[in-house]
Amino acid sequence: MRTLKLRKRMRIYRMFRPLFPLVLIAGTAAAAELKAPTVEAFDRYIRQVETSLNQRRNFLWVDESPDRLKRARGGEVVVEPSGEKAIVPVPDGLVHDWTGCVFVAGAALPQIIEQVQDYGRAQSLHHEVLQSRILSRRGNDFHVFMRLLKKKIITVVLDTEHDVEYTPIDQTHWKSHSKTTRIAEVQNAGKADESELPPGTGQGFLWRLDTYWRFEQRDGGTFIECRAISLTRDIPTGLGWLIEPIIRTLPKESLENTLQETAAAESARAEKGH
Fold first, then answer.
1. Least confident stretch, 21-25, 155-159, 204-208
2. Is the pTM of this model over 0.70?
3. Mean per-residue pLDDT, 61-77
């Protein structure tokens, strides 16, 4: 009898053994904490980026490469590292810097701007957005709330607030800058006992996010371009082989999905209009 019980326990152990590393990941990730030197390094990086953007000769990043431009015009969502490296280590953290572009054939710039400023509908257009609403607006300046879902092996829900400033340049060019002002991880999201962790604590998969958007109407459509710069935790010692793929791939995938879904929504609206 004891032998049968032991065999049964071993079968159960083997069945659930693949899940044990995931439990360990969650426990380790929860220990991450945003520190002042990490924030200072991110802020310095952002200042350098803004200086370089202001000095850039081409309005669109995609115009700096004939290959990128050809791929974008052909319908591809083009996403590449903004510089030599997409991921830059900082003290106790990582800065992720990706730029992407998509071309929406037949789309007019005013309709694109109308769509991206309609934050009340963001949750119906983007699968990572669970809730969204405008907290305040003054002209082309917005303060926005979004509940975001980050899911790749581990699921994380974040309550975020963003300051977004749009700048019209002329009839065919606009740009905007979005900056997170608050990010808090949500425990037991959607349940009666859901609660927020203090900002800067939690699993550390998103601590800061700045996005720089440019819109240009030409060539029979509108180019939508975004440079997304985010701050996450660093790779914990001993668990890099599990945590690293999550941290390294999520920022790029989020940008690709955002551009793809924005273009798809505008294309669907144009088809419906016709």
1. 21-25
2. yes
3. 96
The token pair at 213 is: 């958007």
Q: Of 106, 103, 96, which is closest to residue 227 (Cα–Cα)?
A: 96
How big is the chain, counted in residues? 274
Only one residue has tokens 């019209």, namely 168
Residues 230 and 248 sit within 8 Å (Cβ to Cβ)? no
Q: At what angle do helices 109-116 and 240-273 cross, to 10 degrees?
A: 130
User: What single-letter DSSP state applies at residue 274?
Assistant: -
CA distance 174 to 71: 22
Q: What one-character DSSP code corresponds to residue 91? A: T
The closest of 70, 174, 162 to 113, measured between CA atoms, is: 174
13: pLDDT confidence band, cut at 50, 70 and 90? very low
Residue that is written with structure tokens 């963001």 in the block: 122
Which of helix, strand or coil describes residue 188? coil
Q: Compare 15 and 75 and report the one with higher pLDDT.
A: 75
d(CA 64, CA 54): 15
* Residue 94, SS3 per DSSP: strand
